[in-house]
Amino acid sequence: MPSSLSLIRLPALSIVDLVGADATAILHNLTTNDVKKLTTDGPHRAGLETFITNVRGKCLGHVVVFATENGYRMIGAPGVVATADNAGTVRQSQAIAEHADRYTIREDATPVIRDEELAAWMVVDGDEEPVQTTPLPSMTDQDGVESYQLPWVKSGTLFLLPVDTAAEHPSLIAERLGLDPETLATGDVSDFHAHRVAAGFPWFGIDVTDAHLPQEADRETQTISFTKGCYLGQETVARLDALGQVQKKLVRWKLSGLPAGAGPAADDKLRALDASEDAKPVGRITSVGRINDQGEGLAMGYARRSHFEAGAKLAGQISAGDVGDVAYTAEVLPPVLGDSPE
């Protein structure tokens, strides 16, 4: 009987191991969440979602973190970050490693980039309908094979396996899941991102960049501890919390009125429903999910404060070949909920 699971090989992720006796102190000083709570007790380990902030409180990185026997593992999107001198860009993993090095003086803490050593496989279950809750990060070690439950999708498992044995990975993963490899369907990266958009998870370098503040991603319940103490950029984060709402926020939109199977593109703009064509946009799309045959789908992007509450409706327009310009509606969905780290 066919399985409802799909196996997707992801492009190389950003994977950084911070190792050494002082890894906890260094990572604590660079992250918005309370990584000191993480432990290596038992075969099932809890993780945390966190931003890594620079001195201005901007998002240098967005990762899930797990404690390891000699430090911590950070896992995130490949991402692109501007170099410190703004002369170019680097992957998120390199930016995190250089950031940790910059603030490590005499401490025993060394960042090790593992991007090219580990192949990333995502097993996704279920449909692409939007959700309001996603699983907490957790990791399981079974016979030396580590698997991760992450809030990237509403139901799925990430496997990180040695890249030099990649040909064996589908069979190994099917065995771990108790499945016949022939029943495990294969998907592609577009399938993963459709599930990710449904789960409302921002992909660093696409939906969140080093130009954004943590609160603009609308995941502060999942990512920010306001009681952990000082860290780099903490003053900006705390000040914004004290002053109130941000001026723009990452949201999910339910799209309707589109041509069957055709959708908007990243960076397309949205306007208020009653606005003229030359009016200033109040929304910008960053990620688009799958569009069905009824012309409905999901997208993520930034909405201005006047239009980021659930239920707010915006208008967009796309060119659809022989049909010409087609107007569609984007309605803000409720935010994704998560457990507080406090």
Automatic annotation (TrEMBL):
InterPro entries: TrmE/GcvT-like, YgfZ/GCV_T_CS, YgfZ/GcvT. GO terms for biological process: iron-sulfur cluster assembly. The keyword Transit peptide applies. The keyword Transit peptide applies. Coiled coil: none annotated. Gene3D superfamilies: Probable tRNA modification gtpase trme, domain 1. Keywords: Transit peptide. NCBIfam families: ygfZ_signature (TIGR03317). This is Folate-binding, YgfZ. The lineage of its organism: Bacteria, Pseudomonadati, Planctomycetota, Planctomycetia, Pirellulales.
